[in-house]
Amino acid sequence: MTEVSSLTGRLLVATPALADPNFDRAVVLLLDHDDEGSLGVVLNRPTPVTVGDVLASWADLAGEPGVVFQGGPVSLDAALGIAVIPGDEGPLGWRRVHGAIGVVDLEAPPELLGPALGSLRIFAGYAGWGPGQLEAELDDGAWYVVESEPGDVSSPTPGTLWRQVLRRQRGELAMVATYPDDPSLN
Questions:
Q1: Where are the extended beta strands (E) located within the chain?
Q2: How far apart are CA 29 and CA 101, in angstroms?
Q3: CA 123, CA 46: separation in Å to the nearest integer?
Q4: Can you tell me the distance from the alpha carbon of 124 to that of 75, in angstroms, rounded to the nearest whole number?
C-alpha cells in the first residue's frame, strides 16, 4: 500500500452528493488518519442528552450547548472528549491532535484539566474508516477536505456549522454553502 498523506486535524465536509444519512451535511474532525485507517467525530450532531446525564463530573466544563454530540455511527456507547487548550503546553490527560485541538482522557479527574480548558465537547461514538476506505470516498467526491479552526469544535450553533465552514472557503466551494436542503424544491 502506498503511504497515506495524513489528514489528521482537518475537516471532512460532506458534499451534497453524499447519500449516507449518517453523514448528511456532516462536518467531521479527523482525530487520526494513517495507512491503518481513519477516525473522527461529527461536530454538528447534538443530541437531547445533557452531559450531566452521562458524565456528571464533566458537565460544568462542557461548552454550550451542554449536550452530548453523536460523534458517528460507531461505538455509540463510548464517549470521547475533545477540547481546545490555548497555549503551547497541554495538561496531563490531554493529547494534541492539531493546533489547539486535542482529545481529553475522560478517565482523568476533571479538576486536573478544568483550569486549562478553553472549551470541551463530549461525543458518543465516532466515525471510522478502514485502510483505504476514506481515500476511496474522497476519490468518489463524497467529502471536501478543509482546514479546521478551534472554534469549529465549540461552535454554539452546531446546526449551522456545515454552511459556516463552507462559507469561509475560497472560490467555488463557498458557493456550496447555498445548496438547498431539498434541491427538488428549487
A1: 11-14, 27-34, 37-42, 46-50, 67-70, 74-84, 94-98, 101-104, 119-129, 143-146
A2: 10
A3: 9
A4: 8
CA distance 186 to 183: 5
Angle among Cα 74, 162, 185 to the nearest 5 degrees reads: 105
Cell numbers for 124, please give them.
458518543
The answer to whether 84 touches 65, Cβ cutoff 8 Å, is no
SS percent in the chain: helix, strand, coil, step 5: 25, 35, 40
Question: C-alpha 98: how far from its chain's center?
Answer: 12
Radius of gyration, CA atoms only, the chain: 16
Cβ atoms of residues 126 and 2 within 8 Å: no
pLDDT (tens digit per residue) in 77-130: 999 999 998 877 788 899 999 989 999 999 999 998 888 888 899 999 999 999
- The number of residues in the chain equals 186
> Rounded to two decimals, what is the model's pTM?
0.91
